[in-house]
Write a structure and sequence with these properties.
It comes from Candidatus Avipropionibacterium avicola. InterPro entries: DivIVA_domain. One of its GO terms (cellular component) is cytoplasm. This is DivIVA domain-containing protein. One of its GO terms (biological process) is cell division. The chain is an all-alpha fold and about 80 residues long. The chain has a domain at about 1-15 and about 30-55. It has two helices and no strands. The radius of gyration is 18 Å and the shape is elongated.
Length: about 80
């Protein structure tokens, strides 16, 4: 089993490190780090949302494709 068979977690994103390039084009470390911070934050938000919805179980309203996700009662609650 490879490391990529497991679900991605916010901690995976926080802990990933990329090899530096010595020659040729590469990425600015600051740009990569900033993007990974955003990805980790979004994974945390989505994991919290999934956990919250899972707790509600059968009390959830039915979902219709194209309907979009419901807005949280308190958007700050998921951050």
């Amino acid at each position: 089993m490879s490391q990529f068979d497991e679900p991605l977690t916010p901690e995976d994103v926080d802990n990933v490190r990329f090899s530096a390039t010595r020659f040729g084009p590469g990425y600015r470390v600051e740009d990569v780090d900033a993007f990974l911070d955003r990805v980790a934050a979004e994974l945390r938000r989505l994991n919290h949302l999934v956990a919250t919805l899972s707790e509600q179980g059968p009390d959830l309203p039915s979902y219709q494709p194209g309907q979009g996700a419901p807005e949280p009662q308190d958007p700050g609650e998921l951050r």
